[in-house]
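We include the pair:
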Amino acid sequence: MHKSRGGGRRKNNFRQQRPDRENRHLAEKLSDLAVESDDSSDTEQENDEDDSGSETCSENESSVEPKQKNKFDVGKPAKFPVSMWDLKHCDPKKCSGRKLARHGLIKTLRLGQKFPGLVLTPVGTNCVSPLDREIIKTSGIAVVDCSWAKLDETPFHKMRSPNPRLLPFLVAANPINYGKPCKLSCVEAIAATMYITGFKKEALWYLNKFSWGHAFVELNEELLDIYAGCANSQEILEAQKKYLETESIEPQEDTSYPSSKSSDETEESSEEYEADRESDETTLGKQDKKSEPLSP
């Protein structure tokens, strides 16, 4: 009887203690869940803040207006070689050729190194024309970077090419020679040649590397379009002559563009001069013989 009572009491005590343990475990679990819920709420709050921040940034970014492009802020890089002979006559800070070289947009050639493409040089005999497009497309374009004041000192014979060319009449837009006829910088000469030979986008791409580059096209757009529409060098020379006469511009002796006379006309005039000179010498010889005294 006592044992059963004692056992019953212990069972009752165990039953009373077991709920307490279960309640303790439940309390611990609830506290853990509470901590986790706090952590998750903090994380969600941070995420909400991040999302709101990103939304604010996106709103700010969308509110910023895109930068307005100028009229000539277009173009594409050239797929053909672009090179120059640098005579180091110019101030490196002002030289357009040096700037192109620093940005890897032009290759520097050595004196004595031959260039197979078209070369812009004052010693050229023909004018750039659309017929030169294939030469540029296959072999590229090069320019002589020298000072206009030191043309007599420039060793042009050391910068050889089978295709030397002159540029027709154009007006400079660079800050040093702005508004001066034919005093073009390297990038202007290169861009003009590209434009005339049908590489307009490449020309605009090179000019766009300079803050004043668009001004070159603005000053010369009419002439460049006229030159680009010509069939050959002779037509360009005729268009140049017509423009100079219309605008009452007198050709200057120190310009780099060729004479409006064709090579055939020059040869004919020289032949006429030689014929006239020989005829004058013959006439003078006859007169001298007539004036000689008779021998006794």
